[in-house]
Write a structure and sequence with these properties.
The chain has a 3-stranded antiparallel beta sheet. The protein contains 9 helices and 3 strands. The protein is 61% helix and 6% strand. The chain starts with a helix and ends in an 18-residue tail after the last helix. The protein is mainly α.
């Protein structure tokens, strides 16, 4: 037994410090911190960050189809229905099935959903400010540019890749 323990100590390999410095670990920890800040600032809304993103997307694209929303906010298809039913039950959105296509659900934000977005702009700004507080303004721009590049280039490796639908043309 002692021989095996000393062999494990002497064996080269990955250390806990290596894990702590790994990009994936740091990104996961940053996400945990970001979500914690979101919940702290937005506790009165009883929303998750993904629900908030869905509300904003539905507000931005009235009548968006549920399957398009999946791509626009990069959420797993298996969870979208449950999430949207919750938003609908709270009176924040409506889901309708158009007569011309019974297989789809179109989404619209309702007045309480619009009000919630409007009333929480300051809290959302605080989440971002608090998350990036350790960085100077130049570092923030650099960090966001680099993080955006990493996410964009690796998008296709995601279980739920982001696919941005074009904005509707003004009528």
């Amino acid at each position: 037994m002692a021989k095996r323990a000393s062999a494990a100590k002497a064996a080269p390999g990955v250390t806990l410090q290596d894990v702590y410095g790994a990009p994936g670990h740091l990104i996961r920890r940053c996400n945990q911190i970001s979500v914690a800040l979101f919940f702290e600032e937005m506790k009165q809304t009883r929303l998750t960050p993904v629900q908030y993103a869905a509300l904003v997307a539905i507000h931005d694209r009235p009548g968006i189809e549920q399957v398009t929303l999946v791509d626009m906010i990069a959420i797993d298809r298996s969870t979208i229905g449950t999430m949207l039913r919750g938003l609908e039950a709270r009176g924040l959105i409506s889901r309708t099935t158009p007569e011309h296509n019974q297989r789809i659900k179109q989404l619209r934000i309702l007045a309480p959903g619009i009000k919630l977005i409007e009333q929480t702009q300051a809290q959302m700004a605080r989440v971002q400010q608090r998350l990036l507080a350790p960085l100077t303004s130049i570092e923030r721009k650099t960090f966001l540019a680099l993080l955006s590049r990493v996410v964009h280039v690796n998008n296709e490796f995601s279980r739920a890749p982001l696919r941005v639908a074009p904005a509707p043309s003004p009528d």
